[in-house]
Amino acid sequence: MKYLMMIYDNATTRETFLGPDGAELMAEMEALMAELTASGEVIGQGALADPSNTKTIKLVDGAPAVTDGPLAEAKEHFGGWLLLECETPERAQEIALRFPSARFTPIELRPLMNGDGAEM
Amino acid sequence: VSRGAAQPDAARVEDLLRALAPRVLGALVRRHGQFDACEDAVQEALLAAALQWPRDGVPGDPQAWLLTVAGRRLVDGWRAESARRAREESVAAAAPADAGIAPGADAAVVAPVVEEDDTLTLLLLCCHPALSPPSQLALTLRAVGGLTTAEIAAAFLVPEATMAQRISRAKASIKKAGATFTPPPEAERAERLRVVLHVLYLMFNEGYVASGGAALARAELTGEAIRLTRLLRAQLPGDGEVQGLLALMLLTDARRAARVDARGELVPLAEQDRAAWDAGEIAEGVALVQDALRRAPLGPYQVQAAIAAVHAEAARAEDTDWPQIVALYRVLERVGGTNPMWKLNEAVAVGMARGPAAGLSLLEGLDGALAESHRVDAVRAHLLELAGDAAGAHDAYRAAARRTTSLPEQRYLERRAAALPQG
Fold first, then answer.
1. Residue B368: what pLDDT?
2. Which residues of B touch A41 (CB under 8 A)?
């Protein structure tokens, strides 16, 4: 079963993890990532740049309109993702709960759609 | 290697290797213990044979060849492990003296093969209740089916490294559970066999539901499930449930070509082109289930096969003997207990036999038991549509479409919703 684990950040998350007091959190996250890579359960990952780097692209009356960033500053924003392959849904939840950022900001677990279809 | 052997094609070699895999593994584990290490060693021997045999010909005694090569790999593994030096002494002494990669023509003399089929014991071990279903499936395919990790990974659409880790975790769990390569105690045997049948059924279904680009890799799973169930039946010829499961698989697999259309869209049972059903599989499945029903104690797989046989025997959808199917679902509950998925299918049958209102009333109470599933809403939608309640059917199809994680099911359900007259 494949899940996209969506990791949300807030304005201070990266400071918390990368600042002087974040060493323990970072070590914990690196250890967990090493464990999940070795177990084969993490099959893809990515960290997103700060939301200020975002471009929003729209077609307005057929003409492209590109603007900087999302207009409203959200309290929490999408910060990064893991693609998980887990034996059970419970295991995916267990992994999400162990992710250090879960102590500060929420994590969303979304199952991926698959190509299998039962007889109707 | 036998000299006169014709160049065998790779497919024939693969069939032979898969047939031999459980026998070789069984013989090796019986000799040395350590299921974990033996399983790795046999896998390496199978890979070596898959490379060499199509090129050099099949050895005179292929089973002995595999056993000898696997035995050497096992010993090599032990040698490499310095912590096991003490054990290494005695095993190395017992191992064949010549240490080349492939044994010579005298392999049969060097490594006499004990003619005993351990397929059942292996299946029981690989389907150990300590393992999750995905682990049971993967380990069974490798240790009993003789598939490579790469093939299993392709069938489950996961990276090979992920599958390799899953298999090694499964073997570690078996070890931790203290399971040994011996038949389970008599008191546990029936329950353990039930798990094996369930794993084979899941394996079949994983392949059967495949569609689109992944279908080819995953379809191998249905063939493998049928092959392993045939092997199991050869071991337990008197078991009506093993035979019932085989019949159920054949009767279901018979519909494979008709269950998706040319564009890969799902075709419901009622709309399938029955001329595309596989008559050979239907005939074998019907004969198997009739024979089982005649002579063996009744069990849930036999009853499900009997239901599949009723569908198979209807020349057109409208000829389906729905009252008989309803009666069989009552029997299924009596012999198999209450199962919400069966109840759901019974609601469909009742809806067809006695009208949609009767089917809908059977759905009451299933929402709780199948809260995570979109299927209750899908069946409700179907019955509401039959009842002429377009608005209700529309909402139920949409609810089911939102809930499913299957793309083809979602497309089907959205299509049904969109086809209803808008109120």
1. 80
2. 162, 165
Tell me the shortest Cα–Cα distance from B101 to chain A, in angstroms.
31
Structure tokens, A71: 């207009």
What distance lies between CA B36 and its chain's CA centroid? 22
Q: Which of B132, B255, B266 sits opposite A117 (nearest CB)?
A: B266
Distance, first Cα to last Cα, chain A: 22
**Quick check: B375 and A119 in contact, CB under 8 A?**
no
CB contacts of B211 in chain A (<8 Å) are 115-117
Q: Cα separation of B79 and A59, whole Å?
A: 67
Highest-confidence range of A68-82, A94-108, B65-79, B115-129, by mean pLDDT?
A94-108
CA–CA distances in Å: residue B157 to residues B241, B269, B328: 31, 27, 36
> Degrees (nearest 5) of the Cα angle A91, A94, A100?
140
Bridge-partner residues for B419, per DSSP? none
pTM above 0.80, yes or no: yes
Low-confidence ranges of chain B (pLDDT < 50): 1-4, 96-113
Q: Which of A41, A112, A120 sits opposite B266 (nearest CB)?
A: A120
Cα distance between residue B390 and residue B423, in whole Å: 7
User: What is the layout of strands, in order, in the sheet containing A2-10?
Assistant: A42-47, A76-85, A2-10, A107-111
Give the CA-trace dihedral at B52, B57, B58, B61, to 10 degrees: -110
B179 in Cβ contact with B122 (< 8 Å): no
> CA B174 to CA B168: how far, in whole Å?
10
Residues of A in contact with B407 (CB under 8 A): 113-115, 117
Q: What's residue A70's pLDDT?
A: 76
Answer yes or no: is pLDDT of A94 > 60: yes
> Per DSSP, which regions of B17-154 are E strands?
none
What region, left, alpha or beta, does residue A69 occupy, with left being phi > 0 and alpha being psi -120 to 50 degrees?
left
